[in-house]
Amino acid sequence: MGIEDAFLHDILAHPDDEAPRLIYADWLEEHDNPRGEFIRTQCALARLDDEDPRRWPLEQRERELLQEHESKWLPPGSLMWPWCFHRGFAEQITLTPEEFLIWADPLFAQAPIRHLTLRQRERPSFAEGLGPDSLVARVMQSPHLARLSSLTLMSLSLSRRELEAFAASPYLQQLTELRFSRVYLDENILFAWSESPHSPRLRRLDLSDNQLSARIVRALAETPYLKTLSALNLGHTGLTLDDLRVLAHSSSLTNLTELNLNGNRLTHEAIPILAESGMLSRLERLQFDANALGDPGALALRRWPALPRLTRLTLRHNHIHAAGIQALAESPALTELISLDLFGNISCDAGTAALAASSHCAKLRALNLRFNGVGDRGVRAIAQSRILGELTWLNLTANRVTSAGARSLIDSPHLTQLARLDLLRNDIGTEEQQGLRDRFGPFVYC
What we know:
single chain, alpha/beta, 17 helices, 15 strands
């Protein structure tokens, strides 16, 4: 076994441990191999929050290295499949069930694969004389699955036999994350898996892009097995207010730190339902994009209590206007936020000024006001705000900002931490664009 094979063997044996990767990175850098820098860069990124200004130069360098070297760093003969790199190695792959059955042995021997997506096969196949509905069942008997921490089943028309094989697989106990995307489910599968002696203790469950029946929602709420969940994604699932009430009274979903309710057309009536539930107390991240809250929903949010753990809130495309943003600025639920995303609402200058004056926004590091009708007066309020002095990332893309607004940002005495500024699709002169880069650095986009 050569020295590089020995490094890979150690990394495969300890996929969650960063140390073997960094030791390998040291050896690569000693031999002037750019992959050492790449491993070190991705390991550093894995430790940083989205709002950390140290991310942006690292992400830029990551893109440069991948553009030049990605094909050389993939496992030999694997260019035909979609891969993603994590912490310097190809850890995520998308395969059809047929491809998995044919190629899993060499692929898992050459890469520390931790995340697998099984996608729809393009045409029926009869591998080794078996019908197409047996393929997923065969995959579920592969010992390679024991290496995974995350599994996605995407656009698969699963038979009862395949679903039962999935629930009974002895090789999924290490899973912490499971995603069903465009896969038909019934409540019996959830209960069967919860009763299986091989079922993992999931931390993340993603059911987005499925139409969930009321029976499935009730099964989610009633299955004690899901008490270990910290993240639940129910985006674009056709969730109704009645469904939300069922979930709100669940005794199993009380340990959530992340909840995604995007794209369900939920109205302002959803806000008091959530407020009365046990799901909010531990939440750190709430995604409520592409619903129909409107100003009444923002007014209802003002009545939420302080949420000491909620640090990230996204309310994109919710038809919230200036009056609603002003009400939101008064909500005690915002007090601990470090990231607020209002992309695609209509805050205008009045709403933006209210956010800039709100003591509840004092911890914000990232504020997204893209496509919000913000003009120079709103930008001036941000520039003059002591409260927003901790901002590291401000997104004002596609607003009504002119050179005058840009000059107020350049002259701001308070935006000392700002390291990324998005101002594309505004009417800002060349001189002011350069002034913004001189003031805030290279990650200014005009």
